[in-house]
Amino acid sequence: MNIIKHINRSSHSVVIAGLLVMTGFLGACQEEDEISVGPPSIERVRTTDPTTADSSFTSATLGSTLAIMGTNFLGTQQVYLNDYPLGVNTAYVTNNSVIVTVGDSVPTVATDPNVSNKLRLVTKSGESVIEFQTLPPAPLISQVKNQYLKAGDKMTLFGRYFYFVDTVYFPGEDVFVTSGFETNASGTTLSVTVPDGVDFSESQSVAVVTKSGGSSTNRNTQIYNGKGMIADFDTDGALKYPWDWGWGMSGDMIQSSQPGIESLEGDFGGMNQAFPASYGWNNDKVINLANWSGEQIFPTAPADEYNPAAPAASFDIRFDIAVSTTENITGLNVQIWYPDSKGNELSYDIPLSDFIKTTDGSWYTLSAALNRLTNGSTRLNTYGDFLKGDSGGTKQLRLVVINTTSSDIKAVIGIDNIRVVRAVQ
To answer: Does this model's pTM top 0.70?
Structure first.
């Protein structure tokens, strides 16, 4: 009986051991089948867009998702672009394709001219390398430094990815520039001379095209189309210069220059003072545009653009401003103020440091959508609401420089070309 029990126990152990050996063998065979393939070979690279299934790409931009096509990709350990690891998710690996994403940290020829410009795929069985250029993303325009431009002026754009610039397009048919670009090493500024022939009949936006693609157009990419002027401090109409335009700074301060500031064109309103701390007030830092007889000072033509029924959000209040100072302007704001027909005082504060990159007296355009003027939850709904003016029918628009800091800030500030622009059609 003891012998039988021993035999049974031994048979059980032998069976278990045999199963373990077989399981290990089968697992090894399965691993061998799945991973132990020949050296990898990259045939081409395409995007994951099905429409590019038969395409072959030799370059891509940061942020792209790529499908690497070839053979013997099972067991892929890593994919490198310019010797930078992209990371491999095994869920996106088959024997004939590997899907990877080009992260923003991958070096590009824009930031390092000595990058290898190679794509390398590594498996347990070897590696495959092809020539492949990694480019920065398509350019992005965040701000036109000064939108009040004419042919021959230098236009400066702020944004990102101004590398390998090919063309800058201006409003009009076939109005573009292909040379003479000035960019900085970080690709955040681009300057170019405005060409002849700019035509605003269909657009007021500029666009930049690089090797990586073209920039999108929006209200931040526009230049001045000559419409919607309220006050240029030169042209008399409902407002007359230098004295009959409202109240605030002295008419003596409407000049063609101020210390450290030269005009864009003609005269501008100047402020030269220590702007009082903690929201302190004086009339010399105010431009309150008003015609007390009730005459309309806001633009109404062309009627299709300045349609009273159009949403207030489709319009921007814009003006040009220059600052000359050696002091820090963080904490200096320009407040746009407007009294509506129901007795509400609507306002919006623009921090100068959000737009102004240098305080050397050069000009910048500041902008705010009309519906950003608020008082609590109250705001303008349509352009017609803006045209009504205040509860007495007087049309007023005020710009005032506010110092939110606890110390006076000495500066010379120029303001010109206060206008309402149809920013969105």
So the answer is: yes
Residue written as token pair 């929201």:
279
Q: Is residue 33 part of a domain?
A: no
Same domain membership, residue 369 and residue 336: yes
Q: Long-range CB contacts (< 8 A, 24+ apart) of 349-356?
A: 349/402, 352/321, 352/323, 353/329, 355/143, 355/321, 356/321, 356/323, 356/329
CATH number at residue 108: 2.60.40.10
More confident position, 2 or 325: 325
The model's pLDDT over 196-225, given as tens digits with 9 standing for 90+, comes to 999 999 999 999 999 999 999 999 999 999
Q: How far apart are CA 350 and CA 364, in angstroms?
A: 13
Token digits for 378? 């109250």
Alpha-carbon distance 416 to 44, whole Å? 56
Same-domain status, 258 and 359: yes
Residues 320-346 pLDDT 10s = 999 999 999 999 999 999 999 999 999
* Banded pLDDT at 57 (limits 50, 70, 90): very high
Q: What is the CATH number of the domain that holds 309?
A: 2.60.120
Picking from 284, 366, 276, the residue whose alpha carbon sits closest to that of residue 321 is: 366
Q: Do residues 368 and 220 make contact, with C-beta atoms less than 8 angstroms apart? A: no
Q: Which residues pair with 414 in a beta bridge?
A: 270, 322
Residues 242 and 361 in one domain: yes
CA of residue 100 relative to chain centroid, distance: 26
Question: For position 36, what pLDDT does the model report?
Answer: 54
Same domain, 259 and 376: yes
Q: Evaluate the CA torsion angle 291, 295, 298, 302 in order and state its sign.
A: negative
> Cα dihedral sign for 89, 92, 93, 96?
negative
Task: Take residue 6 and report the two structure tokens written for it.
Answer: 């021993």
Domain that holds residue 177: 140-221
Q: Identify any residues that bridge with 345 across adjacent strands, giving them in sequence order.
A: 339
Residue 193, in any domain of the structure: yes
